[in-house]
Amino acid sequence: MKNRERTDFNKHLASIWKRPLKADTELIAIDPGDKYTGVAFFATNDDGEWYCQDAQEFDPQEFEDALAELILTPAPEPPPIIVFEIFRLYGDKAQLQTGSEFLTSQTIGVIKYLVRVHNEHAARHARAEETGGLMSCEQPGGRCHDPALAPQEITLVRQRADDKKPAKGICNKKKIKSVARPIAKAEYGNRDHIVDAELHGWFYILKTLEGKAAK
Ligand SMILES: [Zn+2]
After folding, report:
1. Could you tell me the distance, in angstroms and rounded to a whole number, from the CA of residue 24 to the centre of ligand 1?
2. How many CB atoms lie within 10 A of CB 23?
3. Cα(139) to centroid of ligand 1, in Å?
4. 11 C-alpha to center of ligand 1: Å?
5. Most buried of 5, 73, 140, 215, CB within 10 angstroms?
6. Which residue has the higher pLDDT, 215 or 95?
């Protein structure tokens, strides 16, 4: 790619996010869909309590570009945890899906691919550190020249559509207010994708992260 084109592409990537990404995001949760994909962003406050920072909706191509920017560019560091809803074709929906190209599962393929590329890069760094070797990306001018930007492994979490239900119950019980719902109303015709993404985030946080801490 010529330099000018690269700059245009970088500008394109930067303009995808409705609101700029925050550097302290620790988890993103994704509800992939055929037409729209919802993403919810989570972080912890000074007391270690989790909260939802923001939620944004994308069309499939926007989402792929946004995720590529988030994972493949060194700053800000990609969030260490990415949760997504898996795709299943259920028997009762099979007839309706006749002829479908299953765009949702194509989106999931992009999530898995980008995380795999990133994690292989992180693993090469870990091996180089063990053996005392220096990687070419760590040389002056390389993308990992600044040790603070060396890639860290991303934990990729698969959740079922059914996991949203208990998440909703626990959130109600704990009086956790939805951050995504008012955004969905104001910006996305009250579609549920970002609300579902938020529930997936809470399911993992409440069941796995805080569940572990409580033991
Ligand atoms: Zn590197």
Report:
1. 21
2. 9
3. 9
4. 23
5. 73
6. 95
Cα of 19 from ligand 1 centre, angstroms: 28
Please say whether the structural domain 3-89+99-132+146-214 has been given the CATH code 3.30.420: yes
Give the distance from CA 85 to its chain's centroid.
Answer: 11
Give the whole-number percent of the chain exceeding pLDDT 70.
91
d(CA 133, CA 144): 14
What's the mean pLDDT in 86-95?
Answer: 81
How many whole angstroms from 188 Cα to the centroid of ligand 1?
Answer: 38
Task: Compute the distance from residue 86 Cα to the ligand 1 centre, in Å.
Answer: 29
* Domain-wise residue ranges, the chain: 3-89+99-132+146-214
> Around ion ligand 1, which residues have CB less than 5 A away?
137, 144
Work out the pLDDT band at 215, boundaries 50, 70, 90.
very low
Over range 69-75, report the average pLDDT: 82
Q: Residue 209 C-alpha to ligand 1 middle, in angstroms?
A: 28
Angle at 46 between CA 126 and CA 111, to 5 degrees: 45
CA of 135 to the centre of ligand 1 (A): 7
Q: What is the DSSP secondary structure assignment for residue 195, as one 8-state letter? A: H
